[in-house]
Write a structure and sequence with these properties.
Blueprint (H helix, E strand, L loop, with lengths): L23 H7 L2 H4 L3 H17 L5 H20 L11 H13 L12 H36 L5 E6 L2 E7 H26 L18 H8 L8 H6 L2 H27 L7 E2 L18 H8 L1 H16 L12 H24 L2 E2 L1 H7 L7 H10 L4 H18 L8 H7 L7 H4 L2 H6 L9 H16 L1
Antiparallel strand pairs: 1-2, 3-4
């Protein structure tokens, strides 16, 4: 009789064809349980549904199904309590759970895998895991949106410079800028939720690649799992890792957003800007310079963006040359998917803590609006309101800026005669028109920085969080 190939306490699921077991180094190289152990409860959920379907189709008896379900539920309970520890000598989490089940319920446990392959089992477990994981991430993103909105509500009247090319451009409010961050995050939520719609389709019953000759009811099993539909091609079902790539792409965009927010925080916390003071709980010092207060957590979030991008490239590269259907290369999908997920989840949480505890230097922000001729466009708009074509008004405003530069003063410090030297259309009301807060509140287009429009954004963001 052939020796049983054993990766520790349990025989490998594929050992029957082999006389000789793999080298210990080979076992260590190919095992994935340290990565896929997080899918233990998803594997149990899928196996319970599969056992119930097998009994429903009379492929196994109801008594056998009951034993399987009870055994799986006991495994889940013991894993949660810590009574049962995962055996890391097992090949993967699927092997561990099936072997543990057989240890507990005997011959019935050997029937749980009837009509399925690890190929469709893995594809199902990943989808079930993502359903849980994405729900948690979206919840954290909505919490961050709520935090940003709460801060924005406190600063609808506090002006700050808006920038293009990192140069002073036009005045906005701190509330308007924070809402801009929040709108980025709403798109991240929507992308994740949309991707989930394509993911929650059941592949189970597709077998290794060609379905099954047994009378499986895939739709019934899908309904037990909470899925509305099943995949439509068995070969595609086990070959597909689009959902891993799509979610990691979503994670990359989210991480890019967080990185951009952090870039601004790093800049704003410098002495040159001094717009924001991070809490000492979310700053670090220097080992040599006693005075330093560094925005290390913002920098770490920014730095970890490359890791998430790398995970996406790893998945795309892994899949690009694989023939249909399943190839062992695809075992590597979980490492990249899980690492990217863990990174964006932790960075979202840390960013929330960091921004929630920060202090805003409002006087500095407002004073900065005096620099860089932020109201130059409003000078042009003033002339447009007087009937001058915009392109002509643009040139007149530019000449006023040049005069202010020569005099080393602000636009509002020019005399009326100096304004009139550029155009006779200027009157004394120009000074009220170009006052920074008036400039902000004049911008009442949808999505603009005027207080009434920012309040509309805040309401819309609150509604998004609650939906």
């Amino acid at each position: 009789m052939a020796d049983i190939i054993n990766n520790g306490n349990h025989a490998a699921l594929w050992s029957g064809r082999f006389k000789e077991g793999p080298d210990a180094a080979a076992v260590a190289f190919e095992t994935s349980i340290h990565v896929d152990e997080r899918m233990a409860f998803d594997d149990i959920k899928g196996s319970i549904a599969h056992a119930k379907m097998l009994a429903h189709q009379k492929i196994i008896s109801q008594d056998e199904a009951n034993k399987i379900v009870e055994g799986l539920e006991s495994i889940e309970k013991d894993l949660i309590s810590g009574k049962l520890a995962i055996d890391y000598s097992a090949e993967d989490i699927h092997s561990f759970i099936e072997a543990t089940l057989t240890d507990r319920v005997g011959e019935a446990g050997k029937k749980v895998h009837t009509g399925r392959s690890r190929n469709d089992q893995i594809a199902l477990d990943e989808r079930l895991y993502l359903e849980r994981a994405i729900s948690e991430l979206v919840s954290e993103l909505k919490h961050l949106i709520s935090v940003l909105v709460k801060i924005a509500e406190e600063h609808t009247d506090h002006i700050m410079p808006g920038f293009t090319h990192m140069q002073h451009a036009q005045p906005v409010t701190l509330a308007h800028h924070l809402c801009a961050w929040a709108w980025n995050l709403t798109r991240d939520c929507s992308r994740l939720e949309d991707a989930l719609k394509r993911t929650l389709v059941s592949p189970i019953g597709s077998g290794a690649l060609a379905g099954s000759g047994l009378p499986l009811d895939r739709e019934y099993e899908a309904s037990l799992l909470g899925f509305d539909s099943v995949t439509q091609n068995s070969l595609d079902s086990v070959s597909d890792r689009d959902y891993c790539i799509e979610f990691t792409s979503c994670f990359s965009i989210l991480q890019m957003h967080l990185s951009r927010f952090c870039e601004e925080i790093v800049l704003w916390s410098t002495s040159e800007f001094n717009f924001i003071s991070l809490s000492e709980k979310w700053s670090t010092g220097s080992s040599i310079m006693p005075q330093k207060k560094n925005p290390d957590f913002a920098e770490l979030i920014r730095g970890r963006t490359g890791k998430v991008y790398g995970d996406l490239i790893a998945l795309l590269t892994m899949m690009k040359g694989l023939p249909f259907s399943y190839d062992r290369d695809m075992q590597e999908d979980k490492q990249s998917l899980f690492e990217a997920y863990d990174t964006v989840l932790s960075c979202t949480k840390i960013f929330t803590y960091m921004i929630e505890s920060a202090k805003w230097n409002l006087d500095v922000m407002e004073a900065s609006c005096k620099e860089g001729f932020l109201n130059a466009t409003d000078v042009a708009d003033y002339l447009v309101c007087k009937g001058m074509p915009f392109r002509t008004a643009h040139g007149v405003s530019a000449s006023c800026v040049r005069l202010a530069i020569e005099k080393k003063c602000h636009l509002e410090d020019l005399s009326l005669d100096e304004f009139k030297s550029a155009s006779e259309l200027f009157e004394s009301d120009i000074y009220e028109f170009i006052e920074p807060k008036k400039c902000v509140n004049a911008r009442k287009t949808i999505g603009g920085p005027a207080k009434e429009k920012v309040l509309e954004q805040i309401k819309a963001l609150k509604d998004f969080v609650l939906r």
